[in-house]
Write a structure and sequence with these properties.
Chain lengths: ~375, ~500
């Protein structure tokens, strides 16, 4: 018997692909529109915004200040090497930047979209050659390493490029989520529909924002992601990010064994379904479950309103991180919902049959993938405070 | 009033006090009174410990009052290194039972009175220095325990309680029969504990009496094939009663084995010892293999008791100073470990509503499961499997070390049983505690979304007793010399009984 039976993983009265498609085409939100959902989504995204701000600053710092450093011991300190900061770091009074790295590695590993294509292109490899030539001239360790492992430094540069791109992506998302919280506070956003619309508008507004990355090596400036590569926010970073982190993900180390025993790990990487929309919130805080790090970070920045709400439910403070993860999953469905809306080929009101067909195809493709996700999170919550 | 009589008086007076409390006090107050009385009993047991002289192997702090002289029933109490640890375990575990009794709405007055009565009777049995007095106390705990199972037990409690009563009543009859037979054969009504009595008998009579005692105590311990009452009794008994049953009452059987079988019939014992060693190995292997097959956590722990009590028989069969010391260690450590495991299984059952290993999964889940309970469970099963640093190791090591020269084959088979302990307890931990949290069978997922599992958390006060027992298990494993010091003289004396034919002389004391 599998350790996690399939029916357990996909329990509940989940919507069918057809129902999801209808919902998307009708312009309805995936997440049920209830006041409790609104509060959870807005507040959890506010704390996520705070955390993403720190992640973004750190990722950009890593990509710029720790570039091609084979032993980046101090990479989580944002350049602040004061004893107080080091002490707080060792005492673990800090943000878990490891989670940001985990997301970066997931993106790099799945490698979809424009950014990944550019990382394998001849201009990029040419830039890498110049950078490595410059770097190895002054750095004896790298000068020895590079001839021995010629792919190593190039791969490090790819990782640095993904790190920087993710940092830029999260910069936008952080500001967006904090703006959303302000909009809800001042009464502009009052429904889940308004939340989805707010996120969609922000994504569309940032869609064409260029993604570039330059480094300084031995006093000389080099482009890693030059403007002429034409990489943009939505298509080249946001979409691959959603693909890698929301949808595919990776089996968590802490659950790999029982996922493997249950034969739930697909041999085909492109059909992986371990992302944020598929993940099981219950093992949160278990060993080897990376989102635990994010939940802990969000817990540090939890708005008091949501914190009080959690305190009144299930085990109160005892299982707060699992509850954060559940709310977070709801919020991620809203963000996905906004991304799907923003990427419809035509407006939903279009009457031309060919355009309608294209919209249908877009909605159907998403509906099939989402139907296997944790759609049990979408319905209205039953009951309130429970044992 | 002697020191040992006070050990009887405290629980019996407590029983009377509970029964006579005026009005209709709330269950909480009854529990409070019981806990106070049992704490006093524990303190007094510690006082006895302080007054005890470990250098002396014979009974000490003796008290004697003529009672019914004509039938040889004297009120004679005494304590030695064999009974003192058991008296301490009795005091500690009855207190644990009372503390972990919660939400008792049905007849709390009777419940706590019976608990105190059992504790007093067990003290009496361990302290008795007269065969009939021992028998009286041995029988005295029978009815209260039967009531505890049949009133506060599970759904099938009537069956389990009756089975327990029948088995244990037969056990009592056999023991009484053996004691009376001793008087009949020797023509004396002196029921004092002395091997000199049996010395006058022919080997045939000795073997007959010893056989009756062996079966009598074998039922109580229990040894295969007289064990079948135990898993049923445990499954139906409430957690505190299981703690008492496994931790204390089974020890009456092993105590009887050492005190009355080995202690009074050393010559016949030496003759049957090789067969007893084989019996021990069969019991250990049967208990362990049966435990592997269980899907009820409590039955699994119960069968593990069957297996682990077999070690005591092995040690008694070998009867070397080391093995007998190992038997005392095994009694104490099994008391602590099985009490701990039953308490933990009780917590799991209370929170999830099931003990089914086919249903429970992933209880170690850090936020929604029972992580601390799971942690202690892992510690408990490691101790039970005899991992170094915990009580189970030192007792099994002493038993095996002491028995190996005398009965190498039986000892090796018992070691296999020790390995099997790791098998079934790892199965338990792996099934119930690892993996993805689940507490209901995968039958109808469509109507019951089991993704959001809501288990009530375990309050710190609920784990206080288990934590205490776990500490005891570790402490005994780390500092075994304390208990060794208490019991060594007595077990050496028992092993050195003049007529015992020692199969091996190579084994020395604990050092």
């Amino acid at each position: 018997m599998p350790i996690i039976p399939a029916e357990l993983v996909h329990a509940g009265g989940n919507p069918t692909p057809g129902e999801l498609e209808t919902c998307l085409l009708a312009g309805r939100t995936l997440l049920a529109d209830t006041p409790e959902h609104l509060m959870q989504v807005v507040d959890v995204l506010e704390s996520y915004g705070e955390v993403l701000d720190a992640y973004s600053i750190n990722l950009i710092h890593q990509a710029e200040a720790q570039f091609l450093n084979p032993f980046p011991v101090f990479r989580f300190l944002d350049g602040d090497l004061s004893p107080a900061r080091i002490w707080r770091h060792l005492w673990h009074d800090r943000i878990n930047y490891e989670y940001a790295e985990y997301c970066m590695k997931t993106m790099l590993w799945h490698g979809t979209g424009g950014l990944d294509a550019y990382l394998d292109s001849p201009p990029f490899l040419e830039n890498c050659r110049s950078i490595i030539a410059r770097k190895t001239r002054r750095d004896p360790l790298l000068a020895v390493l590079h001839p021995l492992f010629p792919e190593f430094l190039t791969e490090l540069i790819r990782a640095a490029a993904t790190t920087h791109a993710l940092g830029q992506f999260w910069r936008v998302m952080s500001d967006l989520f904090l703006d959303l919280a302000r909009a809800e506070a001042d009464g502009t956003v009052r429904t889940i529909e308004a939340v989805v619309e707010f996120i969609k508008d922000a994504l569309v507004a940032a869609a064409a924002q260029p993604i570039t990355y330059a480094v300084e090596v031995a006093g000389e400036r080099f482009w890693v992601l030059p403007p002429e590569a034409g990489l943009t926010f939505l298509v080249d970073v946001a979409v691959p990010y959603v693909e890698a982190v929301f949808l595919r993900g990776t089996p968590f180390l802490g659950t790999v064994s029982f996922n493997a025993q249950a034969q739930q790990i697909s041999p085909d990487q492109s059909t992986f379904a371990y992302g944020a929309l598929f993940a099981d919130p219950l093992p949160t805080m278990g060993a080897g479950i990376p989102p635990s790090l994010l939940m802990q970070d969000m817990y540090r920045h939890l708005p008091p309103r949501l914190h009080r709400w959690y305190d009144q439910r299930t085990r109160g403070e005892g299982d707060v991180r699992v509850k954060i993860c559940m709310s977070f999953q709801k919020a991620m469905f809203c963000v996905t919902n906004a991304a799907i809306r923003g990427t419809f080929p035509h407006p939903l009101t279009v009457s031309e049959p060919a355009a309608q067909e294209a919209n249908h195809a877009h909605a159907a493709a998403w509906a099939v993938r989402l139907s296997r996700a944790r759609t049990d999170a979408l319905g209205a919550e039953e009951g309130t405070a429970q044992a | 009033m002697g020191m040992l009589s006070t050990l009887l008086l405290i629980p019996f007076l407590g029983t009377a006090l509970l029964l006579l409390l005026p009005g209709n006090p709330p269950p909480g107050r009854m529990r409070g009174v019981a806990i106070t009385v049992l704490s006093l009993q524990l303190l007094w047991s510690l006082r006895v410990l302080l007054a005890f002289d470990p250098a002396q192997g014979a009974l000490q702090l003796c008290e004697s009052l003529p009672w019914v002289n004509s039938i040889g029933l004297d009120y004679r109490l005494g304590i030695d290194g064999l009974s003192l640890p058991l008296v301490l375990i009795n005091a500690a575990l009855t207190l644990v039972s009372a503390v972990c009794t919660r939400d008792i709405s049905q007849r709390p007055r009777i419940y706590f009175s019976l608990l105190l009565l059992i504790s007093g009777a067990v003290n009496g049995a361990f302290l008795a220095d007269n065969l009939l007095l021992f028998f009286l106390f041995y029988e005295l705990e029978l009815i209260p325990l039967w009531l505890l199972i049949s009133i506060w037990g599970g759904n099938n409690r009537a069956y389990a309680a009756t089975k327990f009563l029948l088995f244990t009543a037969v056990s009592g009859m056999l023991i009484l029969g053996a004691f009376l037979g001793l008087a009949l054969f020797t023509g004396s009504v002196d029921f004092s504990l002395s091997p000199v009595l049996s010395d006058r008998l022919s080997m045939g009579s000795q073997l007959l009496l010893l056989g009756a005692l062996l079966v009598g105590f074998g039922i109580k311990i229990p040894l295969v094939p007289f064990h079948s009452w135990l898993p049923d009794a445990h499954t139906q008994a409430s957690t505190p009663v299981s703690v008492l049953l496994a931790g204390v009452l089974l020890k009456l059987g092993t105590y009887g084995l050492l005190r009355f079988c080995l202690g009074m019939f050393p010559e016949a014992w030496a003759l049957v010892a090789p067969w007893l060693a084989i019996w021990a190995a069969v019991s250990v292997l049967y208990g362990s293999l049966a435990a592997i097959a269980q899907r009820d956590m409590k039955r699994m722990v119960a069968f593990s008791s069957v297996g682990h009590m077999g070690y005591v028989l092995l040690a008694a069969a070998a009867a070397t100073p080391v093995s007998l010391l190992g038997a005392v260690f095994q009694m104490v450590s099994h008391g602590l470990i099985s009490a701990l495991l039953f308490l933990l299984v009780g917590i799991v059952y209370r929170k999830t509503g099931t003990r089914d290993l086919e249903v429970l999964r992933g209880l170690l889940n850090p936020e929604r499961g029972l992580p601390f309970t799971g942690t202690l469970m892992i510690l408990g099963v490691m101790a039970s499997a005899g991992l170094p640093g915990m009580a189970g190791f030192i007792s099994e090591f002493l038993v095996f070390r002491g028995s190996l020269p005398s009965y190498p084959l039986a000892t090796l088979l018992c070691m296999v049983g020790s390995g099997l302990t790791a098998v079934y307890f790892l199965l338990l931990v792996n099934r119930a505690f690892f993996g993805r949290l689940a507490i209901t069978p995968p039958t109808d997922p469509a109507h019951d979304s089991r993704l959001d599992i809501r288990l009530a958390g375990v309050a710190p006060r609920e784990t206080l007793t288990t934590l205490g027992l776990a500490l005891g298990v570790v402490l005994l494993g780390l500092v075994p010399a304390t208990l060794g010091h208490l019991s060594e003289s007595s077990t050496a004396l028992l092993a050195g009984l003049p007529h015992v034919v020692l199969a091996s002389t190579g084994a020395g004391g604990l050092g």
